[in-house]
Design goal:
- Helix 15 packs across helix 17.
- The chain is built from 33 helices and 13 strands.
- The chain is of the alpha+beta class.
- The two termini are 27 Å apart.
Length: 785
Amino acid sequence: MSSQPQSAKQARITAFLKSQNRTGQQQGPKPPAPEIVEKQRASVSSTGVSSAQSTRTVGDTLDIFDYLSSGTIDEDAKFNLLCRHWSPDASFTFPKVLRRLPSGKSKMQSFQRSWLDRFPWLVYSPRSDGGFCLPCALFAAETAGGIRLSTLIRSPLTNLNDATRICMKHAETGYHSLSLVRAADFKAVRTSIRGNVVQQSNSTHAQTVKKNRQALSSLVECLKFCGRQNLPLRGHDDSGPLTDPENFETAKNEGNFRAVVRFRVASGDRELLSFIKNAPRNALYLSPQIQNEVLICGTMIRDCLVSMVNQSIYFSVLADETTDASHEEQLSICVRFVAEENGLHGIQENFLGFVNAPVLSGEALSNLLMETLESWGVKLAGLRGQGYDGASNMAGKFRGVQALILQKYPKAFYTHCCSHCLNLVLINGSKVPPIRKIMKNLSDTLNFFTSSPKRLVALKGAIAVLLPTASHTRLKFLCETRWILGELRDDSEFSTAHKAENIDMRVRSLQFIVGIRIVELVLNLTLPLSVALQAKNMNLPKCAELVSNIIEVFQEIRRKSKDKITTLFNEAKDFANQFGARVAVRGVGTDDNQLKDHFHEAYLCPFLDSVVGQLKERFTPLFKKAAKCNILMPMSLQHHFPFLGLLSDCPTKDFNDILDVYEEDVSSRGCALAEMRIWHNKWKGKDGSIVPSTFPDIMRAVADTMLPNVKILLQIFWTLPVTTASAERSFSQLRRLKTYLRNTTKEERLTSLALMNAHRDVPLPTDEIVRIFAETKYRKLDILL
């Protein structure tokens, strides 16, 4: 036994046992995938030992049985086993196996979780379906007292009938106590709790470690800079040593990462300069492989976000796909949830990453989406909403992603992206023949200018003459078109002159001028709605209210359409006279009243009717969802729901309709009904100035009144998605990172860099990154004391 005092020895043993505590490892590596467990169950013999081929890891973790089977275990493997040995989480089910008892009978038995809790040194091996004493397996001698050590040390504990007695007897042995001391000392040295005798006396080693860590920290800072600024890392030639590191104006393109490293050295980082000049060529830590290892930053950010999602319990998933520069389909995955910080609640929509989607069928995408979220650690039991575009593979009622996920999670209701709905409203509304012709003429005009640099130069020159104070240099005002097209009609190229003459004739017609005014009227009203829908804190009731208001405005214009067309016609007529356009329409004549009636009946009214009809048709499902959510919103309890009369006259019926869906999420149906009545009566008929209207105020009010079930329902309602704007925003990051020159960027690097830019508010401590990088595997340079 050790010659140190018993109290110090006992303290080290206690610290070691605490470090092996299972509760501290629940945030660590995940249990084996279900298919691995099933294979294990199928291959377990009557003795409980797996006959499957041994591998070093179970999923991403270590299994002691594999290392014991290999014969020898080096120090790095021992350290990894002590720190990262596999530990079952709360959801893991130990396999039941038919075992032969000493009496000769057979019985179905399984390993018990309580044994792991009672004996901290005991670890479970999925490969052998048995238990081992981890310290003894790593540090005990081959024999003790002339007896060869076997059970719990060289072979697994499979005698489950006497498992408790065997473990208690083992814990009292001298070699077990000695192994605990050795394990504690070994782990203390490797984790730098204290150095060994040589290292403590060697100040040079400590100084070298300090310099290496400073240099590595500088490299990590350079990589973080590129990630935060959404810059790709690699260049045309970024291999080999960094020659002349103080010169950042090199002749060859080494990429952004190396350029930032050079700039940092040139700015006075002497430690980094010394490291680059003196470090071995195989340990410069500048290679793309090392960059990928340091890009654990993205994983750190995602783990932080997933932790917030799981803490919130309820969430919605948002997804959209796009094609990147290498013509691969990338699925952008985001989550929407309610986050609480310092007692304040807020809506968050967070991007979690890109996933390559080789197959775009509904079944393939739904499986990919769920498997990816699960692999990231998201608890899918809290899934309450889905937000996608209206593509058939996403929104299909039978084989779409939303339908397949709804089968597995019946409360994950689908919302068609409201921004896409508004876009479809305007597209289908513009199918009115005269309006469609106007939009075609406008599109031809834009294409005419943008397809030729020469025409763009002529356009900009005309803008400078006609509109010297204009900040836009593209086709924004109709007055630009007449003059510039007049110049281009005299172009020496026949095709340009012919096209210019044709477009000039079309855009100077009265039909085009009046039609553009009508389109402008509609788009000016829908633009604020389009902007508002893209806000992250938008919710279904507010969205429904805004759409309802727009419908009412259009209906009001429709009722006064005679006055509106008179105003629009007079403006268009003045504009036409100013630029020499003929105020007449073929088949109608030149009489103003006849022209007004023509534009009223053929242009304005059909366009307004089409837009209003499309708004009602495409947003009616949203109205129905919003009506149920709205019944718990304080501002709406002062009056009836403002549109379509979708609520009944009896609040209790509406309350029951809500609980029919979310009964499993509340403590009990009776308590939830009582709380909803209290909440309803609290705000009904109150003065609007004292009624909370914002989400943080509403959640603070419900917390003050101690209504936990109402709080849960409000949280779920605010979690339901409105648009997929957050997923589409990530496409901008994708285009900046994966360009046509850098189109081989892999998923892990792409997602990590995108996460670093998208979530600049999530801190990335450099010291923590260096520590994880150093402990991940053996490094050629001394980074740990």
